[in-house]
Design goal:
This protein is an alpha/beta fold. It contains 10 helices and 11 strands. The structure holds NADP nicotinamide-adenine-dinucleotide phosphate.
Length: 272
């Protein structure tokens, strides 16, 4: 990674705060913008280069926009007025297609780190969040390879592995592995919660299969409203898989599933 890069971050929550803490620990030239005074005060313990104003980012080479999904377009629009055409802007949004409808006067490279926890805000951010994670990039066809390289090198310094996709394929894939499972986890808890004995008996299996019901509420709401078509298709596929399991040769199907799921472990480490 080019150590002379000035890297900006907007939104010091779980994702932005973790990028900020990791890059500050690596002694990179970082500057950040967030909304609330308490967050700015806490961030100043890591670097003095923190402000409330987006103007603060006007000299940055690469900027990561890490605000909630429903604020991201608004922030990208405001950056239209502030940044020079040479600036590179990446975002961290869990969805990509809705961000890619407009040409930007700067170099926009949409990204999505496949890392997170059920917690939110700067207090819950930590520098190791991206270690061993996958990080998706959905660049436009005409984006310079040299600009993509600058972003991938930062992603690698943060400990993640870059993966390339189109925005549409990304949104379809995350509906299957993240958004639909979250909705199922919420529905599962909602279904079982009325049976007090069931909740009394619930143990690790129920805990693990409902973990996604703890997701950040604002993010969950954005996922459900902005990716509804893909989520509905995923639910139809889920219904169809349940039908195939129950109406077909159940033992051989679950044997195959068990083998394929087990193969996602290499040397005892889950490669998911
Ligand atoms: P978060 O913890 O709620 O953090 C968002 C932060 O953005 C807030 O702490 C807030 O900072 C700041 N903010 C809100 N509006 C702002 C504005 N107008 N200008 C500047 N800062 C503003 O959310 P997050 O989990 O980090 O998610 C951020 C993005 O990452 C979302 O797009 C999400 O889809 C994506 N993402 C999340 C996860 C995950 O598991 N959480 C994983 C991958 C990607 P203040 O404290 O200053 O108010």
């Amino acid at each position: 990674m080019d150590r002379n890069l000035k890297i900006g971050i907007v939104g010091l929550g779980l994702i932005g705060g973790s990028i900020f803490k990791a890059l500050s620990a690596l002694k990179c030239d970082v500057c950040a913008v967030s909304r609330s005074n308490p967050t700015i005060l806490k961030a100043k313990e890591y670097s003095q280069n923190v402000s409330k104003s987006l103007l603060h980012l006007k000299n940055c080479d690469v900027i990561f926009v890490c605000t909630p999904m429903n604020k991201t377009l608004e922030v990208l629009d405001k950056l239209d007025e502030i940044l020079p055409p040479t600036a590179i802007v990446a975002d961290a949004c869990s969805l990509k297609t809705f961000l890619c409808q407009k040409k930007r006067p700067y170099k926009f490279i949409p990204t999505h780190p496949m890392a997170g926890t059920e917690f939110s805000g700067f207090d819950n951010s930590f520098e190791a969040l991206f270690q061993g994670a996958k990080w998706v990039l959905t660049p436009f066809e005409d984006t310079d390879a040299a600009d993509i390289k600058k972003v991938t090198e930062i992603i690698e310094v943060l400990g993640s592995k870059p993966i390339f996709s189109t925005p549409e394929e990304h949104d379809e894939a995350v509906a299957l592995i993240s958004h639909m499972p979250m909705l199922v986890a919420q529905a599962l808890f909602k279904t079982a919660k009325h049976n007090s004995l069931a909740l009394k008996l619930a143990s690790s299996g129920f805990r693990d299969s409902t973990r996604l019901a703890l997701s950040n509420e604002e993010m969950a709401k954005d996922m459900i409203s902005l990716n509804s078509d893909n989520i509905q298709n995923s639910i139809l596929k889920l219904y169809s898989s349940i039908g195939e399991l129950l109406n077909g040769d159940y033992p051989s199907q679950i044997r195959e599933i068990k083998i394929e799921r087990s193969n996602m472990y290499v040397n005892g480490k889950n490669i998911l």
